[in-house]
Write a structure and sequence with these properties.
homodimer; 345 residues; mainly alpha; two-stranded antiparallel ribbon; 16 helices; 2 strands
Chain lengths: 345, 345
């Protein structure tokens, strides 16, 4: 049932239409609120700080691509899923605007974050606006021929996903105040914060494409494993990635004491845990990185994370095969999954 | 078609069921996220700072009452509108949690605000959680017998209301940086921030109750005027209210330089405007209040605000009469509207 498009040509065909749909949603004719929408456009990489149009980094649009590809994979026309795909990407970006405030992050994609330019109050509110407009985007699916029953089913999944996002974010913020976080708790957190949205994007796309329940659930499972693998890969790159490729300073995640999977695994290790915790509790500089890398090596933290990554990748591919049968091998979803996990940045 | 219940007995019958429905939505079985939901419960007046149950001030629940009464007024069973009414109240409280952060307000209903207790990051996220759960509440209407077509229509209105709320809030935050705000711009702001939610609450209740389009639109109009009147009354009480009744310090809104309708009207007055602006630009204390009150009197600011209040009240009642015919006279909606506008706090 897959059309056999490879990943790149699929993106070239659909991403411009996705951007058009997002622009159509994130727009008001009223000049008094132009700046409200301007902040959203800035965050999405469409305008500069003075709200002048340009092309800036805008992210990979992975989630909406998953939605569109899922629709195509079950035999649907991706055009019917464009509004839902826009909803998924707008929701993701709402969460990024709020995350940046909550984490105090001053830059994203090499540009100042929304809150540093317009202040925290307006940035919170611009995020809220995108949250509301993600639902508006989803509801536009009606104009693409999606019936009321499917629309309600999509809204139920989308809403459950929104709730899971905030639960995951609650856990993530809470971890910052805890010295030690169990690996299982960490996986629960990234399940809510990352995996559910990828899974929901796929599931909604499949639903629009007319998938039966079994296929829909299998694609949801593929998305969950893909999301977990994606985040674990992020964690590995944050510690062992090549700074010239990732664009982040070497040791960045360690110096920020970011509670990522390898670090948490080592902190829970019977012999490495205490000395590592002691080092992280004192002031850290580049000169401490070799000693910390040594402790991570002794704990086998990288091997553990890579094993988890491999397992989730394999489980994800099994779900994809369950959903699509032999088409899974040539599906652009397969290319996307492999590409995400082989990435170096 | 009205059942002739008066306002108080309607509330006594339905408010406990509303609280039950809200509790059912704002709940998770998972202990790891107990504090996430605990913040919402605290904000709603159900628990104390340690998340121990008690009875604290919880607001008047005006918006959900409007939703339930609108349903009853057109001949529907309010029980079918309980989930939608919960959605409206949860949405309202999400916006209050974020407003408190954005305005830096440290107390609400005589208790510390959520952000002062749990910090800004978790408070933003708890608000986001309530935003998501307001949609979850609305979708529960399905279990109360609301069909898919009505559900989609309700979601479209609810989503448009969410967008209007954030546009109104954008304008409100922006006003703080402006020396002078036109009365028309102010009315546009409170339209988005207050009136649309009241109108939407009524409209959704009417839709669930089976109202025809004309009735539904008339109730929406009633809600818009009621919302504007409600906010203008708030503005009047903020300057001329009796501190022993309102619970706010005398001159509170003036000393905070709150851009409310009477103050903006006076600031736009040809002779009073400049001297008033000069006074507000310098440091203000209780000793300045008599002079400012004098300028407001000269401008006729109270009379102007009261005239606006009266006009919106009258227009609202006209809409109610259009919607309900002679039943409007005995409708609990009429009692609620009159009660809100005759209030002293």
């Amino acid at each position: 049932m897959s059309e056999g498009n490879d990943f790149d040509s699929f993106g070239q065909q659909w991403l411009p239409l996705l951007e058009d749909e997002m622009r159509a949603v994130l727009t008001s004719q009223e000049s008094a609120v132009a700046e409200h929408y301007g902040m959203m456009h800035y965050h999405l990489g469409w305008v500069d700080e003075s709200l002048q149009a340009g092309e800036f980094g805008s992210g990979k649009r992975i989630r909406p691509l998953l939605c569109l590809m899922a629709c195509a994979s079950v035999g649907g026309d991706p055009a019917t899923a464009l509004s839902a795909a826009a909803a998924v990407e707008i929701l993701h970006n709402f969460s990024l605007i709020h995350d940046d405030i909550e984490d105090g992050d001053e830059t994203r994609r090499h540009r100042p974050t929304v809150w540093t330019l317009w202040g925290v109050p307006q940035a919170i509110n611009a995020g809220d606006g995108m949250f509301a407009l993600s639902f508006a985007a989803l509801l536009r699916s009606k104009q693409r021929g999606v019936g009321d029953r499917s629309l309600v089913a999509m809204l139920e999944r989308f809403t459950a996903c929104c709730t899971a996002l905030t639960e995951g974010q609650h856990l993530d913020i809470g971890f910052e105040d805890r010295e030690k976080v169990a690996v299982a708790d960490y996986l629960r957190m990234i399940e809510g914060k990352t995996a559910v949205l990828l899974a929901t994007a796929l599931s909604i796309g499949a639903l629009i494409g007319g998938a039966d329940q079994r296929t829909d659930e299998a694609l949801y499972g593929f998305g969950q494993h893909l999301g977990l693998a994606f985040q674990i890969q992020d964690d590995i790159l944050g510690i062992w990635g090549d700074p010239t490729v990732t664009g982040k300073a070497a040791g960045n995640d360690i110096l920020r004491r970011k509670k990522s999977l390898p670090l948490l695994y080592a902190l829970n290790h019977p012999t490495v845990g205490d000395p590592l915790a002691d080092m992280l509790a004192s002031s850290l500089g580049d000169e401490d990185l070799p000693a910390i890398h040594h402790l991570l090596d002794v704990a086998g933290a990288k091997a553990f994370a890579e094993e988890q990554l491999y397992n989730h990748h394999q489980s994800g591919l099994a779900g994809l095969k369950e959903a699509l049968g032999t088409d899974a091998l040539t599906s652009p979803l397969r290319s996307l999954a492999d590409g995400l996990l082989l990435r170096q940045a």
